[in-house]
Design goal:
single chain, alpha+beta, Arc Repressor Mutant, subunit A, ADP-ribosylation fold, 2 domains, 3-stranded antiparallel β-sheet, globular
């Protein structure tokens, strides 16, 4: 499977497993799972065909491990804009986490902190490199450091997804460290 096809299938799956399952007639369970055969059939019925082997390749090679397979079911690991309960228990974060963004968002972040926007949680990375890659998807990246240890100590709840993304409801400005040049 070539890289362009892998990316195309991954984006299609992300759209429909994280944001708009109803567009192709899918109904996810409360935890975001759907039967793989149901997913493949719904995609095919809406003009986007792929094989189980292609699906397995996308899941196995996705650099962010966006999808999880359990038995005969699949779901997105995190990043949903639809209501799902991933069943992730609270977790103690490392002392610092990171968030990748772009300069045009900094004024709003300084005023309001990090908010989940159209998702259920703010996404944070355990390392600066991952946050840089996340920010670079929207332009020249800016990486913010999050004092996760202090947040956790102050009662903020963190969870970590199956693919290592740290999730929290919001990050107030007082826990953020902005780069000097911004």
């Amino acid at each position: 499977m070539d890289e362009r096809r892998t990316v195309k299938v991954s984006k299609y799956l992300s759209k429909h497993l994280r944001h708009q399952p109803e567009r192709i007639g899918l109904t996810l369970d409360e935890a975001g799972w759907v039967e793989i055969d149901t997913l493949i059939a719904a995609c095919a019925a809406h003009g986007f065909r792929f094989s189980r082997q292609e699906l397995d390749h996308v899941v196995a090679t996705n650099d962010k491990q966006r999808f999880a397979i359990e038995g005969t079911r699949i779901r997105a690991s995190q990043g949903h804009s639809i209501e799902v309960d991933l069943g992730l228990p609270p977790a103690t974060p490392p002392s610092h986490l990171f968030h990748g963004t772009v300069a045009r968002n900094l004024d709003a972040i300084r005023a309001e902190g990090l908010r989940p926007m159209n998702r259920h949680a703010v996404h944070l990375s355990a390392d600066r490199e991952t946050a840089t890659r996340v920010g670079a998807r929207r332009g020249r990246p800016v990486v913010l450091a999050v004092d996760a240890g202090a947040m956790h100590g102050d009662g903020h709840v963190f969870r970590v997804s199956e693919n290592g993304v740290w999730l929290t409801e919001a990050v107030p400005t007082r826990y953020l460290r902005f780069p000097e040049s911004h």
